[in-house]
Every structure is written in C-alpha cells, then in structure tokens.
Design a protein that fits this description.
Structural class: alpha/beta
Number of strands: 26
CATH class of the largest domain: Alpha Beta
Number of domains: 2
CATH topology of the largest domain: Rossmann fold
Length: about 500
Amino acid sequence: MNIGNWLSRIGLHAPQRPAILSGKDTLLTYGELHSRVAALSLALAQEFGVKKGDRVGLVANNHPHYFEVVFAAWYAGAVIVPVNAKLHASEAAWILKDSNCKLVFSDAAHSEALAAACGQAVINIASDQYDCLVATSATGLPADRAPDDTAWLFYTSGTTGKPKGVIITHRNLMAMTACFLADVSSIRDTDHWLYAAPASHGAGLYGLPYFLKGARHVFPVSGGFSPGEILDLSSSISDISFFAAPTMVRRLIQSARDTGHKGDGFSTIVYGGGPMYLSDITDAISQFGQKFVQIYGQGESPMSITVLTRQMHAAEEVSERTRLLSSVGISQSFVEVRIADENGMEVESGETGEILVRGDTVMSGYWQSPEATRQSIRDGWLWTGDMGAMDDDGLLFLKDRSKDLIISGGTNIYPREVEDALLTHPGVAETSVVGRPDEEWGEAVIAFIRLEEGADVSREDLDEHCMKQIARFKRPREYIFVSELPKNNYGKVLKTELRRLAAAPDG
C-alpha cells in the first residue's frame, strides 16, 4: 500500500476540490495537484533515473510546492528525506550524503549554498526548471509498495552528535494517521491544515490525515510562523487547525490578547515538541476557549505516543483539570505505552522509569545503524530514552530525559553537536553544554567554557565561530567561562552541577 494513493484517489474522484492555498488564495485543486505530482514523478524516473527505494532529498522552508515533491517521490516508489531548512548547509549536506539521495530539491533561499555544500545539483522548487518538470501531461498512479517499505527518512540527532536516520514506513504513517483521526480530531473536506511549523517535522506529518480526507492545505505567504498573519488568516478562513510548539502557542496568545482576538476561525491547535507550562495552557484556553490537544511523540514513533484530548483540557473541576494539564495524557489508540526499569520490567504505578512504546507507529529502525536499532528496539518495544511515571488512570507524566536533549522553541538540540563545534575553536580547551529553563523558548542553550591557557576569546568570537558550523538556532544563548568543569572521580563532567550553576541568579 503506497500512501501516495491518498492523493491520487481524491485527485481522480474529486478533482475540483481545493487542495493548496497560499494564504487566502487557492492555488491548486486536487485534480491539478495530482496531475503535477504525476508529471514530476515521471520526470524523476525518466530524466533522473529515480527507482523504487531511492532517496529524494527536500530542504526547503514551507512552500506551496513542498508536498508536490513529497508525493512525487512516493508516486515513483522512492523515499522522501525531508531536512530541516534551519540547519546549516554543511549539516544538511551531511544528511543528504548519508542517506545517499539520488536527487535533491530545495528552495530559492537554500539551493545555492546547499549545492555548494553537497557537491551535487539541486533543483529549486521556485525555478523555471521545476515548472517545466511539473507541466508535462501525465496521468500515472503511485507505484506499488508494500506497507513495510520505507516512505519517510527522518534524521534526528543522536547523543553522539551525529544525526541518525529514522526509517518510517508506509505502515507507520498509516498508523499515525489512524491515531490522529481517532484521538486528535475528525476532518471534513472543508477543513484547513495550516503549515505554521516546519513541514519537515510534525506539521508535515500531520498534514497527511488532511490529504487522506481531501481537506485543504494552507501555506502562509510569509513561509513561517507569524502570529499576526495567522490571526488574520483565521479571521478570513474558517476551520483552521495547525501544529505548534509551546513557544509558538505562547506568542500567538500574546498577540491575540493585544488585538482582542478570541480564537474565532481556529478549529484545533495541536501542541507538542516541548514542555507546556500549566500557566501558559491555562492562559491559552482562557483566550481562545477549548481548542487545544497535546500530543507526545518522537521521531522514532512520530506524533503517536500519548494524547491529552480536547475533553481532558476541558475538565470542570479545578484540581482535576490541573492534574490532567500537568500530564501528557494517555496512550494513543493504536499503541501500547508502559514504564519500565533498566531491565525492562514494568514499574509500579507512580514510579519513574523509562517510557516504552509498542505499535505500528514505531519505526522499523535506524538507517544503516543496526546496533543503534538493537539498543532502541527490544522485544518489539521502543525505548524512548525519556523518563516518566504513569498513574492508575493511565496518565503519563514526563519527569526527565535520560538523554541530554535540549528542546528550544520546539526544536531538538543535542549538546554534543554544539560541543563539537565549540571544540574546533583553537582557544577552547574544554566545554560542556546544558539546557536552562527559559520562559520564551522553553529551554536555552548554555555553554560552559574552559579556555586554553593564555587564550583571549570573547563571547562574540565563539558566537561567530558556532554560526560558521552549526545552525543559528543551536548556538548557545550564553557562554559561561570557568577555570575548571566539575567532574566525578571517573573524569565525567557533572552536567547536573552545571545545570545548577546555569540556573543560579548570577549565571
């Protein structure tokens, strides 16, 4: 079963139905979208030699042509490799090379630097070349694929600092979509899914249920998250839903409060990807009413571990509502979730352990990393690396992360990749990076630095050095210079102590 069939069935049987919008304007119907995707798929095979199982890279900001590339890859039987457009060109190029992409698509903002970094031709989705590729008359249907064939190769950073490719199959995406329709929201063909967050991540994955149902897909003209633009769209287009990180929800509510907007036009706002403070979600409900659903997932089980439903957000009794909103909800309908100790034994209710998940949403493994796969998937259970506790009602409460992951603005940042960049500076002898709670971003990246003896290095020097190697959003928000890093008897840096120091009033 090729997930591309979801587009072709609507394109053939409801061709006049609106599909892609740029802001308030309809650009393509489902019939037109299907035709363009079929043409691009034909070009992939005939002009570029893309075969079943080949990888097709996509590095772009949200753009009305984004899903033409995604579905064209699937029509051709290929695998789409969506890459976070906020990454540095060298980081994106590493992913494209590691996945051995046969062909790469990008946008005007990234194509030139990306081509230079990865050493291969890059097709700009806003170019005349691209327009020619989608203009050919074609009526092809998606290639035959098995449910366990790879559909989406998602790269998520590992604790070693090197990204790992998460193998997401057609079956995984179907199960994720079933979870959405069962637990998050029903969908009508007149509903709109807004791409406010990057389509390379959760926002793009959650667009799939809307393709299945033949609903409408809205790309903001700005190409990103602008609270004012989104509020304006909600006043012009009814029944808008979207995915947002908690920091985005906070900014949207602040803007709505300033303008007196009460959330009219919004249907469902799904939030996840980082901690949502109780005060923030309470303020959001007070401003917009109950339009919110929280999901907890990760790349290895995309968007599909637990859910805090609309009904849970609306609990009337104050203490019960507080308890519910402090959790990440209950297991989604088509997965099993349990809490286990280091030996895999289930712990007692209320005790903290590692969160395990099992079901058809769980990845088949990591790309070309059998040992990492064996460590993460044991006896059919995905070991998430996240710590939590579950109460007698099945509510999951996140406690901590066994990995040192930092989530800033809803984006995952692993300390090791920042540390690796800092250590290439000749004046840096040692460094350790931790996260610090931040009201705006959820967490801020803080770097502790021990300089080489006699080195004269400023914070500005380190900032400039980092931005030459890693994405801007990964760079430390603060640099703290120390004479020594705290270590245990085995020489391991004590990150718990560094977090305490970072949280101190004087930094």
